[in-house]
Amino acid sequence: MLISTVLTWLLVAAAIVIALPALWILAAGLWPDRTQRLRRVAERGLLRSFFCGLPVMLAGIFLVSVLAKLPKAGATAALLGGVLLTWGLLGAGGTAALLGARLWPQAEPWRQIKHGGLTLVCCVLLPVVGWFVLLPLLAVIGAGLQVRVLFGGGAAPQASLPTPVA
Questions:
Q1: Measured distance CA(129)–CA(160) in Å, rounded
Q2: Cα–Cα distance for residue pair 144/154, rounded to 1 Å
Q3: Helix H or strand E segment including 103
Q4: pLDDT value at position 161?
Q5: Could you give the 3-state DSSP secondary structure of residue 119?
Q6: What residues contact residue 140 under an 8 Å CB cut-off, 6+ apart?
Q7: Which of 18, 95, 132, 157 is least crowded, fewest Cβ atoms below 10 Å from its Cβ?
Q8: How far apart are CA 153 and CA 56, in angstroms?
Q9: Whole-number pLDDT of residue 26
Q10: Cα angle at 142 between 62 and 52, to 5 degrees?
């Protein structure tokens, strides 16, 4: 193995460690309500989100595969695949927020996302299992969270109106 190969994979791992938590903090800063809805949906169960995200990701992979085989559609396939992966990983920010809120309940919300995100990313760096199981699983669950929020999940609970005292 050449040193250039080792450095390539080291830089890929470093990019993942830096980019994913930064992406989740950016999303929380730009769309705080959406991030909180993603967290609330994640609180209600990640298994349901997995089953909601699996058909979306499989359909996306199928579409990217079909586009990649068409002449002069390789760039479109790469763009669509990148958008799909980014969309799924943005949804995983709800999982990072949930993990951070459970492990660091006293911290500010952005720190909870940062700490929860770094915890998730460190798990993803686990060789083989993290790369080929946890990272795709995180993207599928994130896509499921996005789908569930898109169709009305995670709405803020309605505050009950105070009853007047007679």
A1: 46
A2: 12
A3: helix 93-103
A4: 46
A5: helix
A6: 50, 53, 54, 57, 88
A7: 157
A8: 17
A9: 95
A10: 65
Burial 73-112 (b: 16+ CB within 10 A, else e): eeeebeebbeebbebbbbbbbbbbbbbbbeeeeeeebbeb
Single-letter amino acid, residue 160? S
| Number of alpha carbons in the 13 Å side-chain half-sphere of residue 59 | 6
* CA dihedral angle for residue 49, residue 103, residue 135, residue 51, rounded to 10 degrees: -10
Q: What is the pLDDT of residue 160?
A: 47
Which has the closest alpha carbon to 149: 86, 93, 84?
Answer: 93
Q: Provide the pLDDT for residue 165.
A: 61
What pLDDT does residue 156 have?
A: 67
**Residue 153 dihedral angles phi and psi, to the nearest 5°:** -75, 155
Which residues of the chain register pLDDT less than 50? 159-161
Q: What is the pLDDT of residue 153?
A: 75
- Phi then psi dihedrals of residue 71, to 5 deg: -70, 140
- Closest listed residue to residue 16, CA positions, set 111, 121, 86, 92: 121
